[in-house]
Amino acid sequence: MRRFFAGIVVAALVGAVAACGSSGDSGSDAGGGVDKVKVGVIPIVDVAPIYLGQQKGFFANRKIELTMESGQGGAAIVPGVISGQFQFGFSNITSLLIAQTKNVPIKVVANGVASTGKTGADFGGVAVGKDSPIKTAADLAGKKVAVNTLKNIGDTATRESVRKAGGDPNGINFVEMPFANMPAALASKQVDAVFVVEPALSAVTSAGGRVAAWCYVDTAPDLTVAAYFASTKLIADDPDLVKRFTEAINESLAYADAHPDEVRAVLGSYTKIDPKIRESLTLPKWPAEINRSSVETLAKLGAQDGIFTGTPDLGKLLP
Amino acid sequence: MKWLGAAGLAGLVAVVEVIPRVGLVSADYLPPSSRIFAALGDEATDREFWQAVGGTLIGWAVGLVIAVVAGVVLGILIGAVPLLRAATASTVEFLRPIPSVALIPLAVLLFGTDLGSTLLLVVYASFWQVLIQVLYGVADVDPVADETARSFRFTATARIRYVLWPTALPYVFTGIRLAASVALVLAVTAELVIGSPGLGALIGVAQSSGAVPTMYALIVVTGLLGVAINLAARTVERRALAWHQSVRGEVPA
């Protein structure tokens, strides 16, 4: 018995030491001047280029050893980047604008993902069920619409679609739920419409649903949806690492855009999307350039909808 | 009696097979058991799956050990010193009902998506289970035995070893058994919400990928882990307390 408890004590001490040591090893120079970099991402289609770029060696070429840390919904990403647990993070533009108005010290270092800009073939939109009376974006006025996060890019884009179609965007009742739950919520008529992206969008359309509003397309031409960012501290302390990371991401984005088949293949490595859906889902665009005017539009619309407490300073946020 | 438990489980499997097949719930959202087990078979051949099981078990085990050691040491200390017990009683009652998941923002801030986040949640939730049981155990010491030990001039250490510890041990094991289940729940919850490595994170990926059968298969695995942990805890308890009347029972005449 005594030995049993002695063992427990030893194990506890080892565990405690391991727990304390685990967060101190990131960002350090390993042998040969290779930088160990942790990137906070969400395991969704949008971040396929960084996984593909890692496979292709675009990061290793630039002496970056990449580790992806996938947090659900990204709640952990901004705090993780600020505290230095991640060197870089992936977040949608509206979230970054919100952080900027709160003076969170972060700055965009590379583009993340963009809308295809094509009505009828985008990776996200506002979808309705098979026999829904909602035909156009204007019909969404006064309806119950599910978004993945309230007061974020989903409601901004949905409102803009309704506004452009001549409907009243103020009466829309937004409710929050994870993308993955939306197909079921739509099928059981808990909500009238869902703001949804791939692969859940494919689940909705394969169940007979259709897209009533291509809200990313309606919001701005070739809308930049998300971006990679770093803390301003890292940008000041290690500009060379940031430069190499940005170059590697840009190369990855260009490669992913040019090789959709390899993108579909790499999805199998970090998601569990069904192989059939992987072949058929609509991929987003991955331009290397951030579409600045689309970010300005998101900032303006967000301010109009009362998402921000102040006015976002794009000069501080964008490179 | 054992076959009855197995029959109950088989019944559950049969019900889950039938419900989607007769159309009570769409098979898209609750696949029949056979498809869940097929997905489980696929997972079992995947290295990533076993790494996730390992991740969850490490978070569970390390968290539980820290909670048990801290709970036993502090429990005996607080329980044996009446002044400490009076001073901490209301603080313990204040901290104990705070749900561990409410600490997620703190965990993320301190540890990001590392194992540390899981440990914080696991330790916080299971610590109180152990501490409260140990406090009960210490309070249960027979005053006559304690007085006897005192009049024989036992040292404080000897009184803890020979009077307090044997009395408290059954309570300690009850605490460990309760904490072991709670620790598993919190380990999976932390992984699911924060994304620290383990089964919960894999469930999250399966969910966001729309891989419904895989998601249920992983949930089944967490259930199986729970059963295994409970069985193991009971076995250890029975062995360690073989001398105690609660386990020994009466020998039939």
Fold and architecture overview:
The complex is a heterodimer of chains A (319) and B (253). In chain A, the strands form two sheets. Chain A has a five-stranded mixed sheet, sandwiched between helices. Chain A has a five-stranded mixed sheet with strand order 7-6-8-5-9, sandwiched between helices. Helix content of chain A is 42%, strand content 18%. Chain A is globular and about 65 Å long. Chain A has helices at 2-21, 48-56, 77-83, 93-101, 153-164, 182-187, 200-206, 215-219, 232-237, 239-258, 260-270, 275-280, 292-304, 314-317, and strands at 35-41, 64-70, 88-92, 106-114, 124-128, 144-147, 173-176, 193-197, 210-213, 224-231. Chain A folds into two domains: 26-115 and 222-317, Periplasmic binding protein-like II (D-Maltodextrin-Binding Protein, domain 2, 3-Layer(aba) Sandwich); 124-219, 3-Layer(aba) Sandwich (D-Maltodextrin-Binding Protein, domain 2), CATH 3.40.190. With 319 residues, chain A is α/β, with parallel strands linked by helices. Chain B has one domain: Orthogonal Bundle (MetI-like fold). Chain B has eleven helices and no strands. In chain B, helix 3 (47-80) runs antiparallel to helix 8 (156-194) and helix 8 (156-194) runs antiparallel to helix 10 (212-240).
